[in-house]
Amino acid sequence: MAAPWTSALLVLLTSQAVSWGTAFEDEEVPEEWILLHVVQGHIGAGNYSYLRLNHEGKIVLQMQSLKGDADLYVSASTLHPSFDDYELQSVTCGQDIVFIPAHFQRPVGIGVYGHPSHHESEFEMKVYYDRTTEQYPFGEAAYSDGAETSHRHAYAPEDASQEDESVLWTILISILKLVLEILF
Known about the structure:
Layout: H1 2-26, E1 33-44, E2 48-53, E3 59-67, E4 70-75, E5 88-90, E6 95-100, E7 108-114, E8 120-130, H2 157-183
């Protein structure tokens, strides 16, 4: 009786994996984003690879774990951020996105961490410059912190929905892994 359910579950998982892979390849970025750099690398389990960002303005880091699980940590206060010392992070099991505000002091430290659940992780990170302008619902003076305001940018409401969707996918994948582990 478990065989029909097992094959149906495998078909479902295979179709999801194929659609996920093509969705990332076909994913379009907003036209306001300018691709600055693409970084590819391998990282061992429990290790860090560090990068330094000097470019001014609002920067978007979009990282995809091609194999294993690479996590992203960012800091304006240290060039060697970790899971204990960071200001921004993205630790999903797939695509990680971090929005670095224009007011972050440069250079910004970027740490890519190889999660210990995999012997080795392979990643590709795209670095974008975000040219969008910030909208001030209460006037620009209400948001001024002394930094130059011409380089500030808006927080898009889509960012929150993408983060929620990513969390839901992570939970769904975890549940499916548990079901597969129980069945096999």
